[in-house]
Design goal:
By secondary structure, the chain is an alpha+beta fold. The protein is built from nine helices and 25 strands. α2 packs parallel to α3.
């Protein structure tokens, strides 16, 4: 899904600017437009953009979606910040103060609070920040601009650090997104930014498009940021219900493609007559070495691995949210080890995966371990190519008829998501011989 973020410099009141913008959007196949300063605040009715539906906002911040797609929920959080929810992804669109450094610093601090309030949900923060993130990103003539203070930069860095965000356009040679002559000198800034959750960075393509301001058919004086997100938008009205582990039994349909395929992860569960190689690796190389006495298999399916753990005299239980499997939620929260075997890769978006990790971590004792095993990107890519699987979000429908999803997940991605679930990489973990799959051994911090 391609999203464009651009400061329109209040020009949409003009027919010519609207026509040029609509042509630009069609040419680039943009599906979602988030715009800063789209029209004059005094205009009470949002201008019509041909081929797009107004999703909400005002003359300060507004959003449009391509016709035929469900309009996302849009909420004005502050005069300078708008929250837009695209399925599992939250977008915080911002337009920071263009005049006062102290105001921008305060807004960045508030923005960090808004990001923290999302409680780990995947984030994209985009818009016109009206600052240069680095000294090289702001020039006045040929000299470094003094418009942005070090206090602003420090607060921006704090926001990125606390919310685990990546500045996606921070190349070694800045792509300036705004140029204007002041006092006879050219002022150039990389001020239009796209900050995205670090675990989404590899699955998201971001580019700066200067044609919005420099081409013969330009319609603003800012470059646009084009963001290709791993989100499949719905054609019908989206559910307001957020993901919960209880939804995994298929009774709800919080995430679906335009054909309304119900995601049913439990249908990927294998009927095993023997324990999985992953569970054998855990008992052969980890439980004895680390003195593990109790194990929970989180997302245990039909429970073959639980039987294996119990056969070795481990105090083992299983949990699976698909009730027919017969493994209800345990009451205890003191397991030495929690395993999550091939669960994350069948959940259809990063937010569900983070929530599943949070839930798994909640069963481990402080200082306990969580072992996560996933199918590898290489394996899934090969299977998708061979099987002609259709793309969905950041992975594939392995069977649209069954509603099953697959995504290959690296050990690095597991660890990045796990940090959002309050887990850290274990110190000096033993090596698990698991060829062809990915895994991470994580620890629950001691409070």
């Amino acid at each position: 899904m391609l999203l464009a973020s651009v400061n329109l410099n209040r020009r949409l009141g003009a027919n010519d600017a609207r026509s040029r913008l609509a042509s630009w959007l069609r040419k680039r196949r943009v599906q979602v437009l988030v715009a800063q300063e789209p029209f004059k605040p005094a205009d009470r009715v949002a201008p019509v953009i041909a081929g797009f539906t107004f999703a909400g906002g005002d003359g300060h911040l507004a959003a449009w979606v391509s016709e035929g797609l469900a309009a996302p929920a849009a909420l004005r959080l502050r005069p300078w910040a708008q929250r837009i929810q695209l399925d599992w992804l939250v977008i915080l669109q911002v337009h920071l103060d263009a005049h006062a450094s102290a105001s921008r610093t305060s807004q960045l601090a508030e923005l960090a609070e808004l990001a923290a309030a999302e409680d780990g949900r995947p984030l994209l923060i985009c818009g016109d920040f009206n600052l240069a993130p680095r000294a090289m990103d702001g020039l006045f003539g040929e000299e470094t601009s003094t418009f942005t203070t070090e206090g602003e930069r420090a607060m921006l860095q704090q926001l990125k650090r606390e919310a685990s965000l990546v500045d996606t356009t921070a190349d070694e040679v800045p792509a300036f997104t705004f140029e204007r002559v002041f006092a006879g000198k050219l002022s150039r800034f990389r001020c239009d930014l796209a900050l995205i959750s670090d675990h989404l960075a590899t699955a998201t393509q971001v580019s700066t498009d200067a044609s919005a301001r420099s081409a013969p058919a330009a319609f603003t004086d800012h470059s646009a940021i084009l963001i290709d997100l791993p989100v499949a938008l719905e054609e019908a009205e989206p559910d307001d219900v957020l993901f919960a582990l209880s939804d995994l039994d298929g009774s709800e349909n919080p995430f679906s493609s335009s054909t309304k395929v119900t995601v049913q992860p439990h249908k990927t569960a294998m009927s095993r007559q023997a324990p999985s190689p992953a569970s054998r690796a855990v008992t052969e190389h980890l439980t004895g070495l680390l003195g593990v006495k109790s194990v929970l298999d989180h997302g245990c399916g039909r429970g073959a691995d639980v039987v294996h753990y119990r056969s070795l005299d481990l105090d083992a239980e299983g949990f699976d949210p698909h009730e027919p499997f017969g493994w209800p939620r345990p009451d205890r929260r003191d397991f030495d080890l929690v395993t999550s075997m091939f669960v994350l890769n069948v959940l259809p978006d990063p937010w569900q995966r983070i929530q599943a990790l949070k839930d798994a971590a909640s069963f481990a004792r402080p200082g306990g371990l969580v072992v996560v095993v996933t199918r590898s990107p290489e394996e899934i890519t090969k299977a998708a190519t061979h099987g002609g699987w259709a793309r969905h979000h950041d992975g594939f429908w392995s069977s649209r008829g069954k509603g099953t999803f697959q995504r290959g997940i690296t050990a690095e991605e597991i660890t990045t998501m796990a940090r959002r679930a309050g887990l850290l990489p274990a110190d000096n973990p033993p090596a698990l011989p698991l060829p062809g799959v990915c895994h991470a051994i994580l620890a629950k911090p001691v409070a």
